[in-house]
Amino acid sequence: MRRNGLKQQQPPHPCAETAQTHQSSGMPEGVPGSQTPAAPILDTPTLLLLLLLMERLAKTEREEGPALPSIETEEPIVESMPLAAEQRTPDIQHPPPQPLRTHRLAVVLLVVCVLISMAVIAVSLLPLVTASATVTIIPVQREITTTTTLTVVTTGAANAAQQHIPGRRLSSLTLSQQETVPSTGVGHQPARAAMGRITFYNASPATQTILAGTLLTTSAGVQVMTEQDAVIPAVAYPILGQVTVPAHAVLAGPAGNIGAGEIYGPCCRLNVSAVNAAFGGGQTARSYPIVSTQDLQGVATSLVQSLSHSVQSALATQVQPGETLITPVPCQPKVTSDHHAGDEAAQVQITVDETCSGKVFTTHAYHDLIKQSVTQEATKQLGEGYILTGDIQARIDHVTPKGQDEVELAVTGTGTWGYQFSQNELGHLKTMMAGKSETQARAVLLQVVGVQSVSITLKHTTTVPTDTRTIQMVLVEML
């Protein structure tokens, strides 16, 4: 009867787990954000090969070691007489073999783990002392601006080849707004003398003349003066000769506003008498508010502007997604007021009624034509090697209605184009700089087409490394 030999299974060594962890995470490739390091001392395939050799070494050790003694052994049967009890030799106990080879394997594994750890540390620290260069390049950028004319077509098909973009007409609407403001004008009225008429009567058979400027006085002491000669015809009995001439109060003011007949009776000379009609219009000087032209125009302009924003908001409810409202919206304003310019009034009320009809265009078609126009101009000016950076900025400079169905837009488009370096070009630039001083490398790069400015940072060296793998190229776009 035979017993199966016992096999001992070796547990995984902690160092081997550490090596696997480094293998999965990967070795650092250099100082972050600086350059690509030199080739690592212990890469992943080499580490796997070492682990495989260790496993085979352990297997060989197990196979060459002596087998443990079996628990049951077959002894040959010998026919002999039993010996006396005192003559029997006691069984010799053989000690089990010492696991010397196992201890030796553990030592080897420990040494290998230490070497692996040192290699990992060395690879981690190697980029810190490796010569490197960081080259920052700002490529050439050019702003391209062009002006074009687009036509919005609200009926029929729009032909993009003729710079047409599709659009549609919105429903017209009328908005009203009213505002009352104080009058800012000031009127001035000087003092004014009362005006009236004097009738002279002549009882003489001869014609008589009363010269202009003759003073007549009322019973209250108010003096009036005639303004022209009064030639009074002779009496023709029973009718007295008479004539009427204008006159005015000597002193300005309301005191000259005398009633009719306050001058009555003989005057001036024999057989002549005078009678006055009512005088009026005499007043003192005064200032008063009036409606000025600026009052009407200023309020009307303000209301029109306010209505324009309201109109855009009202028309925006008719604009569909993907459409753009053409501004300014054409409107027909009507301005009315309760007073005219020059009227005496403390305040004035202005009303504006505005009727507007808006149009919209398709947004993507508009931007496509602008981009096409600016791109063609950029290719014409810059040639190949440049690409658009950012978006095209479009601005409508002028809107011209063309009948009921078309609107002409004068548009300015602006875009920025930057030079685009390929990987092959960047590799060639590295080769051109390798081994040169910072000043020489900068001078070389500034001569390259597409380079606007250069910044070079050297680390652990005074010249650009000859190993192009340690040269990092950084391209910066100026926004």
Report what the structure shows.
This protein has 479 residues and is α+β, with helices and mostly antiparallel strands. The protein has 4 domains: 10-64 and 97-130; 131-166 and 362-479, no CATH class; 171-185 and 288-357, no CATH class; 191-284, no CATH class. 27% of the residues lie in helices and 32% in strands. It has helices at residues 14-25, 44-64, 100-129, 293-316, 363-382, 423-433, 438-446; strands spanning 132-139, 141-153, 164-169, 173-182, 185-189, 195-202, 208-210, 215-217, 223-226, 230-232, 241-249, 264-266, 272-276, 286-290, 323-325, 331-337, 347-356, 359-362, 386-402, 406-419, 451-459, 471-475. The protein is rod-shaped, with a radius of gyration of 59 Å.
The neighbouring-strand order within the major sheet is 15-18-3-2-20-19
Largest sheet features:
6 strands, mixed
> What's the helix-strand series?
HHHEEEEEEEEEEEEEEHEEEEHEEHHEE
End-to-end separation: 89 Å
What is the quaternary state of this protein? single chain
Q: Any idea what the shape is? A: rod-shaped
% residues in beta strands = 25-35%
The number of distinct β-strands equals 22
Mean pLDDT: 82
Q: How many individual domains? A: 4
Q: Structural class of the helices, strands and pairings?
A: alpha+beta
Q: In percent, how helical is the residue content?
A: 25-40%
Number of helices: 7
